[in-house]
Write a structure and sequence with these properties.
The chain is of the alpha+beta class. The chain contains 9 helices and 44 strands. Pfam families: DOMON (PF03351), Reeler (PF02014).
């Protein structure tokens, strides 16, 4: 029995030795003892996450001081996708494993008891959205909790470009600089950033003001003397080198060691204007002048300095900047006070941990989108559809951030599109524009510079498609494409000079679902142009170009072919023997109203046709057949009254041929017009909701049912009358507009009251449908506002 118990303890310890295997990536459930179930009670452990700059600090611990032996933790989207990468601060008892991506999961490296776990999580480049950290914590071999979740954290991209040197200060690295508090404001004259990297430490030094050297010293006090110093020095040729030196008291200056590379290695360096930068890797333990400097076990006062002169085998006086930390510093971030910690002899309570119970989300709350943060304040934003910036739900949007002569264009589009672009134009139309395209390709997003020509009317990539631009970051999250592109302030594109500093431009944003070799396809996702030219440094609100002519075109066509044409056709078809004896301007009432409605149809159609060409100034470049069908309708409509004017005299042999032709052209124009309206719903410029199709279908049903009812009534009238009356006579029309077959009639045919009632109901329904369609057209896009809208 004792032997069995001993073997059990050994196997329990070994099971936790190397952490979770990749087979546990999805479930996060350890396979202990062949399937020991996890605990179902409330876990004593909590995961806490806090975004600091562009990274997230993740802490795992217990507010009750309960230690744990093993763990595995991941960052996941709300739909369960594992994303991001972890960084492990020095001394972390854990290692990363690859589940969905490189280093996206962390697990323990040994079964020693742990009180606190501090990790750094880096989101994917350009990611913005919700992240939940999921963890499994093993208290003992047979006691563990699965599915411990952190409160939701909203990952935000910075709206203003940050200096990467300061990224992670206080989280992944220790930073200190002169003047005091300059690290927070990111404007140090000289600064150091120290990062623990395995068994070494990386020292980054940065100094401004045309220095020839910058240095960081580690001291037992806040004064120079008996200190270990890392120097970065620029020689006469502009080359930067790194040295290890020692500050003595007599003489009171930094003296390089006999081996000036002792314990250090220069990794990187640069000169950018008046700024000096270097990155030096230093051994964790070094013996300098008989003094042991252990950077992991000891704390030091940090001294930073820079100067403008050199001496023989050394640096000159720190005449540009110098500051010393008043207290000794640990050279890696220390957040142990977040949780209850255990001393060597027991547990000791310290600071109350920042645990909290998150409020239940409200149904009316909306997802936060950091892309729009700073719009109208620190950056210029413009998106489609109009007004989407304030509601933060653009289909395609651009944000322009200007810093000096640096222009950063952020682009984002949703709806499973393959590309998104922004154009700089001298007018509100495409053509002769400089365009930045962000295109899905391979496993990510690529950026190109293109130029929109008129013949052919499309965006053509430049011979050098990266001319004047550089892709900073990008992402594809769910159905959303995002990119951040830096563009030169001055570029010569296809022979045209674009000066973003001195000139103003119209902004054009667009997105589409198709990409062809060397070009993007049509903007079938969305398209919108700004109404006025604007300097890109002007962050005031950008108004969209007026769509008055487009809206009038749609309203006139709807009025013409669903309204006036429909009523006019019914009058000519079924109401010749109604209101007999009543005339208007010498014509039978049915004929007078038929002519009135058809003249209105002609006027509305011609006006709409002219307006759309005034707006576009060209033939539509959409593949949608709406333009072709609309043109056919307009041509038929144009010649219809001309033919009616030259109709043959009543009683001639060709009169019936005219009647049939007049009927055929009129009905053909009406049918084609209705089909054209259905295709209008798919037009990008129209921005109509798909539900308009249902309204058009409702009209077709009402129109067909009305025709059927009136046809049945005419058939019944013919059978019951003392003489047959053709339901659609093609005989001569008298000069008064009466059909000769009815000249001997002095009263309405049977069921006239019913026909009048049906016509009244029909007109009311048609007026309601036309008014509704006009309102939707004029106020488009209104999908998120009208009651039949469906949520995406």
């Amino acid at each position: 029995m004792r032997l069995y118990y001993l073997l059990f303890l050994l196997s329990s310890t070994q099971a936790l030795q190397n952490g979770a295997p990749t087979s546990a990536c999805d479930s996060l459930r350890p396979f202990h003892g062949g399937g020991i179930p996890p605990q179902t009670d409330i876990s004593p452990y909590t995961v806490f996450a806090k975004q600091t700059g562009d990274v997230v600090q993740v802490s795992l611990g217990s507010s009750l001081g309960v230690p744990f032996q093993g763990f595995v933790i991941q960052g996941r989207t709300p739909n369960g996708q594992v994303i991001g990468t972890f960084q492990l601060p020095g001394g972390t008892s854990g290692h990363t494993i690859d589940c969905s991506g490189a280093a996206d999961t962390v697990t323990h490296t040994n079964p020693d008891e742990k009180d606190l776990l501090i990790l750094i999580w880096v989101p994917p480049v350009g990611y913005e959205g919700t992240v939940i950290f999921n963890a499994t914590v093993v208290q003992h071999y047979n006691t563990f909790w699965v599915g411990i979740q952190s409160p939701r954290i909203q990952i935000q991209k910075r709206s203003i470009r940050q200096d990467a040197f300061y990224s992670g200060c206080g989280v992944t690295k220790y930073c200190y600089g002169d003047p005091i508090d300059c690290v927070n404001t990111q404007n140090c004259r000289v600064a150091v950033a120290i990062t623990s990297v395995g068994e070494a430490f990386d020292f980054e030094l940065k100094a401004n003001g045309n220095p020839v050297w910058a240095g960081v010293g580690l001291s037992d006090d806040s004064r120079m003397g008996d200190d270990s110093v890392v120097e970065c020095v620029k020689d006469n040729s502009g080359r930067i080198d790194a040295f290890m030196s020692w500050t003595g008291v007599n003489p009171y200056r930094a003296t390089r060691l006999e081996d000036p590379k002792h314990g250090i290695n220069l990794l990187n360096s640069s000169i950018n204007g008046d700024e000096l930068y270097c990155k030096v890797r230093r051994d964790t333990v070094t013996n300098v002048k008989g003094n042991i400097f252990d950077l992991r076990r000891n704390s030091f006062h940090v001294l930073v300095a820079s100067g403008s002169s050199l001496k023989a085998e050394g640096v000159g006086f720190h005449d540009l900047a110098r500051l010393a930390s008043p207290d000794p510093q640990v050279l890696s971030p220390n957040s142990q006070s977040l949780f209850v910690t255990r001393g060597e002899t027991g547990r000791t309570d310290t600071t109350t941990p920042p645990y909290f119970q998150p409020a239940a989300p409200k149904e009316s709350s909306t997802e936060f989108d950091s892309f729009y943060e700073g719009c109208g304040n620190v950056k210029l934003c413009f998106g489609s559809p109009e007004g989407c910036i304030s509601s933060r739900n653009c289909k395609a949007v651009t944000a322009v951030t200007v810093t000096g002569e640096i222009y950063d264009f952020e682009l984002k589009a949703s709806g499973n599109v393959a590309w998104v672009g922004v154009g700089l134009s001298n007018d509100t139309k495409m053509g002769d524009d400089s365009v930045i395209e962000c295109v899905k390709g391979g496993n990510g997003v690529q950026a190109f510079m293109s130029y929109t020509g008129i013949q052919p009317y499309r965006a053509v990539r430049l011979t050098n498609p990266q001319l004047g631009i550089g892709l900073l970051n990008s992402s594809i999250i769910d159905d959303t494409i995002y990119c951040n592109v830096r563009r030169n302030a001055r570029t010569n594109v296809n022979g045209e000079f674009f000066n973003l500093i001195e000139n103003s431009y119209h902004l054009l944003v667009a997105s589409g679902s198709e990409v062809t070799p060397g070009s993007v396809g049509f903007h079938d996702g969305t398209f919108l142009a700004s109404g006025v030219k604007q300097a890109l440094s002007d962050t005031s609100e950008v108004a969209a170009a007026s769509k008055l002519l487009i809206h009038l075109h749609g309203a006139f066509m709807l009025t013409a072919w669903i309204g006036t044409a429909s009523v006019g056709i019914l009058l000519a078809r079924y109401y010749r023997q109604t209101w007999v004896g009543t005339t208007l301007m010498g014509k039978d009432l049915w004929f007078a109203w038929h002519r009135f409605f058809m003249v209105l149809t002609w006027l509305f159609t011609m006006a709409a046709f002219v307006l759309i060409f005034v707006e576009l100034k060209q033939w539509s470049n959409e593949s949608n057949p709406h333009a072709i069908l609309g043109t056919v309708t307009t041509i038929l409509c144009f010649f219809q009254p001309i033919g009616a004017y030259f109709r043959p005299h009543p009683g001639t042999s060709k009169r019936s041929i005219f009647n049939w032709g007049h009927w055929l052209v009129g009905n053909a124009a009406h049918i084609i017009a209705i089909v054209t309206l259905f295709f209008a719903v798919r037009l990008t410029k129209a921005q109509l909701p798909d539900e308009v199709d249902y309204i058009l279908v409702a009209y077709v049903v009402v129109h067909v049912v009305t025709h059927l009812l009136l046809s049945v009534m005419y058939c019944m009238s013919e059978k019951s009358g003392d003489s047959r009356v053709s339901s659609f006579p093609m005989k001569d029309l008298g000069g008064s507009g009466r059909n000769s077959a009815y000249n001997d009639r002095s009263m309405d045919s049977r069921f006239s009251t019913g026909r009048k009632f049906i016509l009244g109901i029909y007109i009311v329904i048609v007026v309601v449908l036309v008014l509704g369609l006009i309102l939707i057209t004029v106020f488009a896009p209104i999908k998120d506002k009208w009651p039949f809208a469906t949520s995406n």
